[in-house]
Write a structure and sequence with these properties.
Layout (H helix, E strand, L loop, with lengths): L1 H4 L11 E4 L7 E6 L4 E7 L7 H18 L18 E3 L2 E7 L13 H17 L18 H14 L2 H6 L1 H9 L2 H11 L6 E3 L8 E3 L5 E4 L6 E3 L1 H12 L17 H15 L5 H5 L1 H21 L12 H27 L2
Helix pairs in contact: 3-9, 4-11, 8-9, 8-11, 9-12, 11-12
The structure holds 2-acetamido-2-deoxy-1-O-phosphono-alpha-D-glucopyranose and magnesium ion.
């Protein structure tokens, strides 16, 4: 496969080093080192992203706008191959190459408050710089990706059609999801009344999607396939979900899941530093809700996948998606317990 792709970019496969890179669940990513430069090669998951050329077009529209309006901002768009294509469709799938940013690094686990602050600033900055861009120009690369109404319906249908043993094992988790249905109802209200505006939203704000410099200051955000019109609660919510606990969704010792309230404050400070004057008062009133929304939706997605025999996320061991869902529901429980303290922290 590399023998086919790399020459399109004028790279001799026998004169470079290629190794797997990162730990995303959806796309395949490799680091390609030639004698003169580093690249990130990525194969788009075409079962998830049904219209890869929409992504490519989004990236080029955003690049054009940002290069024009904010030339000092580093926006990492795919490089063009020898024929001028930034996305290649081959019999092995869809591929693109990004320049590797020298002297940058990514972080996989948030263990410093400053990392949460820097990341939140970068995701906030991205939406702020694009607040003058007409969001309607962007393709929706994953329809209904963060539509909790639909996710909830899909979850109910997964429950209905699940194999008996899986449903039995999941019954306590299913009950907890049903008990907290008010989280879906709040989303319904936001969605149906257009309470908050559509913005250019990243939709995958985990820490590994931020590039840091040698002084651990944020440089920019990466992994832009899910950049599309959305609500700010998606970005803030996924930061809360993935930064407020020291352990990830992969942790199975559930007693270790605790909330780091100071990290919530760091996310708030970093995001507001950039978006504070752009967000409406109504949006600000949903800042804490954002965490509930995303944690709940992720739990629901993992559990639905478990009930559907792991067709989406895959499974590395028996019950993998069950435990991921359990982990997220315990995180939700802890988050709800902290709500009063979090409100005080941000003066809400
Ligand atoms: C997927 O591939 P990755 O890890 O960046 C998923 C996110 C989930 C995440 C959970 C397109 O992201 O929505 O939050 O797994 N992306 C897609 O780890 O489904
Ligand atoms: Mg991703």
């Amino acid at each position: 496969m590399f023998n086919k792709i790399l020459p399109l970019y004028g790279i001799d496969p026998s004169a470079c080093e290629v190794k797997a890179f990162g730990d995303g669940l959806i796309n395949h990513t490799w680091l390609v080192n030639t004698v003169s430069a580093g690249y990130i090669l990525q194969q788009l998951n075409q079962f998830v992203f049904k219209r890869p050329f929409d992504i490519d077009q989004n990236l080029s529209l955003l690049k054009e706008y940002l290069d024009q309006e904010y030339p000092e901002y580093l926006f990492i768009a795919p490089v063009k191959d020898l024929s001028g294509n930034s996305l290649n469709q081959t019999s092995d799938g869809y591929f693109r190459m990004f320049p590797f940013v020298e002297n940058s690094h990514t972080v996989n686990v948030v263990d410093q408050k400053d990392e949460a602050y820097e990341a939140a600033r970068q995701f906030g900055k991205f939406s702020r710089l694009l607040s003058g861009f007409d969001v309607k120009q962007l393709h929706t690369t994953l329809p209904d990706f963060h539509n909790l109404i639909l996710r909830y319906r899909q979850f109910l249908s997964a429950c209905e059609h699940a194999e008996a043993d899986r449903k039995e094992k999941a019954s306590a988790l299913i009950s907890y999801i049903l008990e907290n249905k008010d989280i879906v109802e709040t989303f319904e209200r936001i969605f149906e009344n257009n309470e908050i505006p559509l913005r250019v939203i990243h939709h995958d704000t985990k820490i590994s999607n931020v590039l840091f410099d040698a002084q651990n200051k944020g440089i920019c955000v990466i992994d832009l396939d899910t950049v599309m019109p959305g609500y700010f609660i998606s970005d803030v919510g996924d930061m809360i979900r993935t930064y407020i606990c020291a352990l990830s969704e992969e942790e199975t010792d559930m007693s270790r899941i605790v909330i780091r309230e100071e990290f919530f404050k760091a996310i708030y400070d970093g995001y507001m530093e950039e978006m504070g004057t752009t967000l409406t008062e109504t949006e600000k009133s949903y800042f804490i809700y954002a965490g509930k929304f995303l944690i709940y939706m992720q739990a629901l997605r993992f559990l639905a996948d478990y009930l559907q025999n792991d067709v989406y996320y895959g499974s590395k061991y028996e019950g993998h998606n069950f435990y991921r869902a359990e982990n997220q529901l315990i995180l939700l429980k802890r988050y709800l317990e902290s709500e009063k303290n979090l409100k005080e922290l941000i003066g809400a």
